[in-house]
Design a protein that fits this description.
This protein is an alpha+beta fold and about 290 residues long. The protein has eight helices and 13 strands. It has helices at about 45-55, 90-100, 110-115, 130-145, 160-175, 210-215, 230-235, 255-265; strands spanning about 10-20, 25-35, 35-40, 60-65, 70, 150-155, 180-185, 195-200, 205-210, 220-225, 240, 245-250, 270-275. A five-stranded mixed sheet has the order 6-7-3-8-9. Strand 11 and strand 12 (about 245-250) form a beta hairpin. Helix 2 crosses helix 3 (about 110-115) and helix 4 packs parallel to helix 5 (about 160-175). The longest helix has 14 residues, at about 130-145. It is elongated.
């Protein structure tokens, strides 16, 4: 989690609507405050690409994307492929020159440390970088340029597991005043540094909220019973919560025992459902 002291500025999707296909319209309404990290999960990379284009205002959509109450197009947004570097210059010279264009001064020692943090060599010429190294170097620059909104695309096919770990640590270390948006196709340890998570399932927003609440929700089961009377007796020793329409909520790990206890006390069970059944985190959830 990032900590920020000072004026709170908000990134907001306000009545956003984007047609994804003939019968699917993505609708988003949410806010992310300064210093918060938001991970957006969608197993369809093309939908994530549309969100990136929406941030850039390069695709048509209804509604607004705002930062500090103003249209987001007033913000400088640098994606990993937006900035060019000189092939024959070293990484250190390249990043010094690029930062100078934004009037940002960082000592050579600090820059070398940041470059090495990503397992890169500061004396390496830009043209000699591998594809994954190019992405990491561009991400480093986009972080150091001190944007109000930082968008990280973890769906880049060249990024390795180690690369993503390094990028996550760099975000926590360096992006203290930014709204950080991480785009990914699954929830995993590299993007679970987020304060909030937006899950888009089959083109529909299925969850927006705190990561901790989402992980708890995925472990809860709702049981529809014939009556909520005398539950204290029937479920003595079990933790449960009264829900609505004669539903009770229990942890999935005790589901079988609870159902047996209900039936033993002559209570009918009509339906059992996972509370997070519509929230698909895909194969990456096992990596948390």
């Amino acid at each position: 989690m990032l900590f920020f002291i000072g004026e709170i500025m908000v990134l907001e999707f306000k009545e956003y609507k984007k047609k994804l296909k003939k019968d699917t319209i993505l609708e988003l309404d949410f806010k992310v405050e300064t210093g918060e990290i938001l991970t957006i999960i969608n197993n369809n990379p093309s939908n994530l690409e549309l969100l990136k284009e929406s941030f850039r205002q390069r695709t048509k959509f209804k509604g607004e994307i705002l930062f500090d109450g103003e249209n987001i197009n007033k913000q400088k947004l640098l994606f990993s492929k937006d900035f060019g570097f000189y092939n024959d210059l070293s990484l250190l010279k390249n990043i010094k020159n690029a930062l100078s264009l934004f009037n940002i001064k960082v000592s050579d020692d600090e820059l070398v440390g940041d470059i090495e943090f990503l397992n890169l060599v500061s004396s390496t010429k830009y043209k000699d970088l591998l594809p994954n190294e190019v992405i990491k170097f561009h991400i480093l620059f986009s972080i150091l340029v001190d944007q109000n909104i930082l968008i990280i695309d973890n769906t880049e096919e060249h990024l390795t597991v180690i690369d993503k770990e390094e990028i996550s640590e760099l975000i926590l270390e360096k992006s203290n005043n930014a709204n950080v948006i991480i785009l990914d196709t699954m929830l995993n340890s590299y993007n679970s540094i987020a304060d909030k998570v937006l899950v888009i399932t089959d083109g529909i927003k299925s969850y927006f909220g705190n990561l901790e609440d989402l992980l708890i929700l995925k472990q809860l089961t709702a049981i529809n019973v014939s009556s909520q009377e005398n539950l204290d007796i029937a479920l003595e020793g079990y933790q449960y919560t009264l829900y609505h329409d004669n539903e009770i909520v229990v942890r999935e790990e005790v589901l079988e025992e609870v159902v047996y206890a209900l039936l033993k006390n002559n209570m009918e069970v009509f339906q059992i459902r996972n509370l997070g059944e519509k929230i698909k985190l895909y194969e990456g959830e096992a990596d948390l």
